[in-house]
Design brief:
The structure holds two protein chains of two kinds.
Chain A lengths: L9 E4 L9 H11 L10 E4 L5 E4 L8 H5 L5 E3 L6 E3 L9 H5 L6 E3 L4 E3 L12 H5 L5 E4 L1 H18 L6
Antiparallel strand pairs in A: 1-8, 2-3, 4-5, 6-7
Chain B lengths: L6 E6 L4 E6 L2 H7 L2 H12 L13 E5 L12 E7 L6 E7 L1 H9 L3 E5 L6 E6 L2 E6 L8 H12 L5 E4 L2 H4 L7 E3 L2 E3 L4 H7 L2 E7 L9 H14 L6 H6 L4 H8 L20 H8 E5 L9 E5 L9 E4 L1 H7 L8 H14 L3 H16 L24 H13 L4 H4 L2 H13 L24 H9 L12 H5 L12 H17 L16 H16 L5 H21 L11 H5 L14 H15 L9 H6 L3 H7 L2
Helix pairs in contact in B: 2-21, 7-20, 11-13, 12-14, 17-19, 17-23, 19-21, 19-23
Classes of the chains: A alpha+beta, B alpha+beta.
C-alpha cells in the first residue's frame, strides 16, 4: 500500500478498531450536504473481506499528486495545513485527480460536477465530525511522524512485553 | 413524505417486467416497515392457500424507517413470504448495507412475484431494474456470490441479498444472506431457490432527507455514545455466546437434542472460551455502533481457516445440542451453514434429531452412505466429524441429506411412516420450526410465548423468558398473569422488529428497557425522521398491529387453535439433571395459558380475531376477510 509522504495531519483509521458501521460516512455527507448518502461522503469505509475493514480519507500528501495532475490548476494545497481546496470556477470534472490519488480518497460529485475530498471540517471549531462520532475511537487525527512513533512503541511493547496494547 | 419514498417496487420474474405501486401515507403510518410491512405486503400479494414453493407465493422485502440515517442499529429490513417450514407467515429480519442501499435507491419495499425460467440476479440500480443471468453464480457460497456480483458490476458499493448452494438445492430451512448477515429463519432461501432467484442486488446513489435532521443528529449522537457503555457490554465484549454458561447454570441449555438442560462440556463451548481461543475480530452491521458479531476462526487441525460469526443460538444448536464440546467442530458446522446459506439453528436441531434416532438404533450406519463413505458412518452424540459430514450432505441434498434438508417435522413423519416408529416424539419443532436455545420446560411463560408464536417458537419474536428468568414470576409454575406477560413481550418485540431497530439497543435510551424507558425516545426518532406526531400509545399500536397482521395471515392460511403447540418432549419428557429437572408443561397447563393469552389479546377462545378488534387497529379490509 502506498504511504503518505505528508508532513501534514490527516484523518486516519485503525483497522483493528474499525467495525465497519459506516457512521463516519453518514456524518460526513450530512455535514457537507445536509443529506445522508455514502456516495457523497469524503471518508469511505472499505470492507475487503469479512474482517478486514477500515476507512480512508485524504492523506494530505506533500507535493500532492492530485494537485500536480489537475490540468486546470483547480486544486490548491494549503501550505499550512496541507488541505486540498478545489476552485469551483476552474474544476471541469475531468477526474484526473481521482486517477492520480493512490488512496482513492477523491470522488466526483455527480450533482455539482466538482472533485471532493476531506477538508478535516476545517470550518468547524470542533474539527472532523467523523472523528467526533466514531463509536470505537477508530478514527483519529495523525501525521506520518506520529504514526511512525506509535508503530515503534507498539513494536517494542509487543517484542519485549509480548502483548500488543494499543490497537 | 419524509423517511419514505411512497413507492413499492413490484417485479415479475416470469414476465421479466416491473411496475411501481404508490402507497398513501396512512398505509405507512399503520405498517411502518420491517416485519409488519413485509407481512402486510405478503397479505396483499399472495394467493391464499398456495404452496410456499408455488409462483403465487411472493417475496416481500420491506425496508426500515431509519435505514440510511445515523439512527443507531436502524439499518435493517424485513423479509416475508409464506414459510415452507411452517405453512404460515415466514418473517425474518436482516441488518446492514443491503437495507441502506435499497433506501438510497428510492424504494420502501420490493415485492417479487412468480418464478423465473432461468436463474436470475435482479439488479435494482436506483430506479432501473435489470434481470441478469445468474448462471455464472450458481454453486457459489453466500459471501462469494456477493463479491462476484460486485466484480461483475465493477462497483463495490453494490449490495446483494443472496442464496447459497443450500437455497439453490431448496433445503427447506435455507436462508437469505446479505453483507454477512442472515434473514435466518423460516426458509426464505428455499423460496428464493424455488423461484430461481439467486440474488437481489442494489445500487442506491441518492441521499436520504429527514424532517428534522438537527434533532435526529442530536438523539443519534447521544444513543451512539450511550451504546459504548454498560448497557451493551454483554454484546460488545463476548456477544450473545455469553448465554452458554448462564443457561447452563439455570439448567436450560439444550443438550443432546433437548434431552437435558445442563452440559458437562459447557465451559469448553462458552462465550468466554470462544473469545479467548477463537476470536478474530468483532464487527458490526452497517449503521450499528455496538458491534456484536464475534468473528471466530478454527486456528488448527483439519478445519483450519474455517471462519464465521458466532452467536448463542447457532452455538447451542451445534454444540451442546449435539453433545459436542470442541469449538473447532462447532465453528466448522456453523461456517458450513453460513457459507452455504442455511439456518444453523434448524440444521443443528435436525442433526441432533438424527443423532438421537441413530442412538435409538432406528438409523444405522448404512443410512449415512454417501460418496465419501460408501459404507456409511455412525452418528453418535458428540461426534463432530460425522456431524460435519451430515451438514455437507444436507447442503448438497446427498443421500439422507435430502431427507434431513426438510427439517425435523417432515423428516420424522417420513421415517415414522416408512419404519413404523415414533421419532416425531423427539423431533423438536412446533408449527414445523425448530425452537430456540432456551429450554421451555423450565420457563413456563416462554412455553406459552413459543407455542403461540406466529412464525413458530422463537426467542426473537417473544422474549417471554425475561419474566421467567428475572424472577418476576415463578418460572416453574403457571398462573393467571401469563397471558398478559406473553402478549406484552410479543408486542414489545414486534415494535423493534417493525421499525426495525436491533433489540440490543433497548437499554441505551434511558437505561431502562421497558416501554416507559424506550418509547418516548423511539417516538422522537420516528417523528424527527418523518415529521409525524406519534404518541406513546401509537408506538404500542405499532406492535399490536404487527402481531395482528401476522396472525391474520395465518388464520387465512388455515390456522387453528391446535396449531399453537409445543414439541412433544417439552410436554411429556422431563429432564433428569440440573435445576430445571422434573418439569414439563402439561397439556392442561398449556391450554389454560393459551386461554389467558387469547383473552389478553381480545381474541375469541378459538384464537380468532373479532372484527371490532381489527377495525380499532385500522385494518378494515382484514376484518372483512378473517374477522369474526
Amino acid at each position: 500500500m502506498p504511504t503518505s509522504t505528508s508532513k501534514y495531519q490527516y484523518v486516519d483509521c485503525d483497522p483493528d478498531k474499525c467495525i465497519g458501521c459506516q457512521l463516519c460516512e453518514y456524518v460526513c455527507s450530512y455535514t457537507k450536504t445536509g443529506e445522508y448518502n455514502s456516495y457523497r461522503s469524503r471518508i469511505r469505509t472499505v470492507r475487503v473481506d469479512e474482517v478486514l475493514i477500515t476507512a480512508i480519507a485524504c492523506r494530505t500528501c506533500e507535493n500532492a499528486p492530485c494537485v500536480r495532475a489537475c490540468p486546470k490548476d483547480a486544486l490548491d494545497q494549503d501550505p499550512k495545513t496541507g488541505i486540498i481546496h478545489v476552485d469551483t470556477t476552474k474544476c471541469d470534472a475531468c477526474a484526473w485527480c481521482v486517477e492520480a490519488c493512490d488512496f482513492g480518497a477523491i470522488s466526483m460529485n455527480p450533482a455539482t460536477k466538482l472533485a471532493e475530498m476531506c477538508d478535516q471540517c476545517e470550518e468547524l471549531e470542533e474539527g472532523p465530525q467523523c472523528v467526533k462520532w466514531c463509536p470505537k475511537e477508530a478514527l483519529f487525527i495523525t501525521t506520518p511522524d506520529q504514526r511512525a512513533q506509535k508503530s515503534r512503541r507498539e513494536l517494542i511493547k509487543e517484542e519485549i512485553i509480548g502483548t500488543k496494547t494499543a490497537g | 413524505m419524509y423517511g419514505y419514498h411512497g413507492k413499492v417496487l413490484h417485479i415479475d420474474l416470469k414476465e421479466k417486467k416491473h411496475w411501481v405501486e404508490q402507497k398513501p401515507e396512512d398505509w405507512y403510518k399503520k405498517y411502518i416497515g420491517g416485519v409488519s410491512m413485509a407481512t402486510r405486503l405478503c397479505w396483499e400479494n399472495i394467493k391464499p392457500g398456495c404452496d410456499a414453493y408455488s409462483p403465487d407465493n411472493p417475496v416481500c422485502i420491506a425496508n426500515g424507517i431509519f435505514a440510511g440515517t445515523p439512527v443507531p442499529v436502524g439499518g435493517k429490513y424485513g423479509l416475508a413470504s409464506k414459510s415452507p417450514m411452517t405453512g404460515f407467515i415466514g418473517d425474518s429480519l436482516s441488518g446492514s448495507w443491503f437495507a441502506i442501499a435499497l433506501k438510497r435507491a428510492g424504494w420502501d419495499a420490493v415485492v417479487i412475484h412468480d418464478i423465473s425460467d432461468n436463474w436470475v440476479n435482479i439488479f435494482i440500480d436506483d430506479d432501473r431494474v435489470e434481470f441478469r443471468d445468474a448462471t455464472s453464480l450458481l454453486g457459489k457460497g453466500t459471501y462469494e456470490t456477493e463479491e462476484a456480483i460486485r466484480e461483475l458490476l465493477h462497483d463495490d458499493q453494490v449490495r446483494s441479498a443472496t442464496i447459497g448452494p443450500s437455497g439453490e438445492n431448496m433445503v427447506r430451512y435455507a436462508n437469505v444472506t446479505n453483507d454477512g448477515r442472515q434473514a435466518g429463519r423460516t426458509g426464505h432461501g428455499a423460496v428464493w431457490g424455488s423461484k430461481k432467484l439467486k440474488a437481489v442486488s442494489v445500487r442506491g446513489t441518492h441521499g436520504i432527507a429527514v424532517a428534522d435532521p438537527d434533532t435526529l443528529m442530536k438523539l443519534s449522537f447521544n444513543i451512539t455514545k450511550e451504546a459504548q457503555g454498560p448497557h451493551t457490554s454483554k454484546y460488545r465484549i463476548l456477544g450473545t455466546s455469553t448465554n452458554v454458561l448462564n443457561m447452563n447454570k439455570l439448567g436450560l441449555l439444550p443438550t443432546r437434542n433437548y434431552s437435558e438442560g445442563v452440559f458437562e462440556g459447557a465451559e469448553m463451548v462458552s462465550g468466554e472460551y470462544l473469545h479467548e481461543h477463537h476470536a478474530v475480530k468483532t464487527i458490526a452491521c452497517a449503521q450499528c455502533p455496538i458491534a456484536c458479531e464475534q468473528m471466530s476462526m478454527v486456528k488448527s487441525g483439519p478445519y483450519e481457516g474455517a471462519m464465521t460469526g458466532i452467536e448463542y443460538e447457532c452455538l447451542f444448536a451445534n454444540g451442546p445440542n449435539l453433545g459436542i464440546s470442541d469449538l473447532n467442530y462447532v465453528i466448522k458446522l456453523i461456517s458450513v451453514a453460513d457459507h452455504s446459506g442455511m439456518d444453523a439453528m434448524s440444521m443443528g436441531i435436525t442433526i441432533s434429531w438424527a443423532m438421537e434416532t441413530y442412538e435409538r438404533k432406528i438409523f444405522t450406519s448404512e443410512d449415512f452412505k454417501c460418496n465419501s463413505h460408501p459404507d456409511g458412518f455412525p452418528l453418535n452424540f458428540g461426534d463432530g466429524e460425522s456431524a460435519v459430514f451430515v451438514a455437507e450432505m444436507i447442503r448438497d441434498r446427498e443421500g439422507i441429506g435430502a431427507l434431513l434438508s426438510e427439517g425435523t417435522r417432515i423428516a420424522s413423519q417420513t421415517i415414522d411412516k416408512e419404519r413404523g416408529t415414533e421419532t416425531w416424539k423427539w423431533a423438536m419443532q412446533s408449527k414445523g420450526l425448530e425452537p430456540a436455545g432456551y429450554d421451555a420446560r423450565g420457563l413456563k411463560t416462554f412455553a406459552l410465548g413459543s407455542s403461540v408464536g406466529t412464525r413458530g417458537p422463537c426467542h426473537n419474536r417473544s422474549a417471554a423468558y425475561d419474566v421467567d428468568i428475572q424472577g418476576v414470576v415463578d418460572r416453574f409454575k403457571v398462573d393467571e398473569t401469563r397471558g398478559e406477560h406473553a402478549k406484552d413481550s410479543e408486542e414489545y418485540a414486534a415494535v423493534y422488529d417493525t421499525l426495525p431497530l436491533c433489540k440490543f439497543i433497548r437499554r441505551c435510551f434511558t437505561g431502562k428497557a421497558d416501554r416507559a424507558g424506550a418509547w418516548p425516545t423511539i417516538g422522537q426518532l420516528i417523528n424527527a425522521t418523518t415529521g409525524w406526531d406519534l404518541k406513546y400509545e401509537d408506538i404500542d399500536a405499532i406492535g399490536s398491529r404487527a402481531v395482528t397482521i401476522k396472525k391474520a395471515f395465518n388464520i387465512r392460511e388455515g390456522w387453528k387453535r391446535s396449531d399453537d403447540s409445543l414439541p412433544w418432549r417439552w410436554m411429556h419428557d422431563p429432564m433428569t439433571k440440573g435445576p430445571s429437572a422434573g418439569y414439563v408443561t402439561t397439556e392442561e397447563e398449556l391450554e389454560y395459558m393459551k386461554d389467558l393469552y387469547y383473552k389478553a389479546k381480545g381474541w375469541t377462545k378459538e384464537g380468532l380475531i373479532p372484527k371490532e378488534n381489527l377495525i380499532q387497529l385500522g385494518m378494515e379490509d382484514v376484518a372483512d376477510q378473517i374477522g369474526v
